[in-house]
Design goal:
It is a single chain. By secondary structure, the chain is mainly α. The protein has 15 helices and no strands. It has a domain of 132 residues.
């Protein structure tokens, strides 16, 4: 589903274009500052909500172009604070909307600019570094992401203490990275401790706590403790549905983990039922080309083939062959 661009975003885009069209070469720095401030005044749309992604596509194009002009004019992209916040939301959008490769490039650029300007330990520099690591992780470069996650955790721990919400989130991100690297024993130890600390400090229904629980379920899955993983994944799904809504991407991803675990346990029919429901829901929320939609469809085909229902499996992709294995 394609959502309309937010009217405020359309207006800001027109204003920025108008600024640059009317500018002379001598006015570039002043125009850059005016365009930067205009974009910084945009409303803080939620980048995790797919209904905002059409708007963020336009915002991202404007931000990337502006950062190039800022560099040419010698105007810092590290000010004002509201512009940094906008850039961080753009980076979150690039991660959430399957554009991690673009996210890596933008995150590296702004982190390198912000570190000398506002400091490596500044909350926004660390946020940019976290988005860099997340995009590397999503792009399949978890080996490169790991030291970035570790550095963020160290700096947040030094600045805020071990049980601060930002430190706990950094630890959660490292736990997810260790799972992806299949270092499941280290991940299990880390994630077990994080879950306890998050529950004590933040409560069971805090999003970071739920993220930590999902990471722990992933560690259990990797260690072959499938029944325990399934129980925890189901609990994570219930909590995400209650906190973020049953059709949020977080809740749908948790349900996808349930389906993966059911298939691994040999319960192909129940896994098929879950994936058959997920395909239209992912498509309705984020579109047919979104990775979650494509992965759910690939898992549904796999479930059907495991059940010996090859004709139905062929129809999942319109009779087109699939290459590779679903996640």
């Amino acid at each position: 589903m394609t959502h309309p661009v937010d009217p405020a975003v359309e207006k800001a885009h027109r204003d920025v274009v108008r600024l640059f069209r009317a500018a002379t070469a001598d006015e570039l720095a002043a125009v850059c500052r005016a365009a930067r401030d205009r974009l910084a005044a945009l409303p803080a749309l939620d980048p995790d909500d797919p209904s905002t992604w059409t708007s963020y596509e336009l915002i991202t194009a404007d931000v990337r172009s502006l950062i190039g002009f800022l560099g040419e004019a010698g105007v810092p992209n590290s000010e004002p604070e509201r512009f940094r916040s906008l850039v961080i939301r753009v980076l979150r959008y690039l991660y959430a909307a399957d554009r991690a490769e673009s996210g890596v490039l933008l995150a590296e650029l702004v982190r390198n600019d912000w570190e000398p300007a506002i400091g490596e330990s500044h909350v926004h520099t660390l946020a940019a570094a976290a988005r860099l690591a997340a995009c590397l992780h999503a792009h399949g470069d978890s080996e490169q992401a790991r030291p970035v996650f570790e550095r963020i955790l160290l700096l947040r721990s030094r600045t805020h203490g071990d049980d601060h919400p930002e430190t706990l989130l950094a630890a959660c991100n490292l736990g997810a990275c260790l799972n992806r690297l299949q270092d499941f024993r280290a991940a299990f130890q880390l994630n077990t401790g994080i879950v306890r600390r998050c529950e004590r400090r933040l409560g069971r229904d805090d999003r970071t706590t739920i993220l930590a629980a999902g990471n722990l379920a992933g560690s259990l899955f990797g260690l072959g403790q499938l029944e325990m993983a399934l129980t925890l994944y189901r609990d994570v799904h219930r909590r995400h549905s209650r906190v973020t809504g049953e059709n949020s991407l977080a809740a749908l991803d948790a349900q996808a983990s349930i389906a993966i675990t059911l298939h691994k346990l040999g319960d192909y029919e129940t896994a098929r039922t879950v994936n058959a429901g997920l395909v239209p829901r992912f498509e309705r929320v984020a579109g047919k080309d979104y990775s979650g939609t494509e992965n759910a469809r690939a898992r549904l085909e796999m479930n059907l083939r495991a059940l010996g229902r090859d004709e139905e499996a062929d129809d999942v992709h319109g009779g087109m062959p699939r290459f590779g294995s679903p996640p």
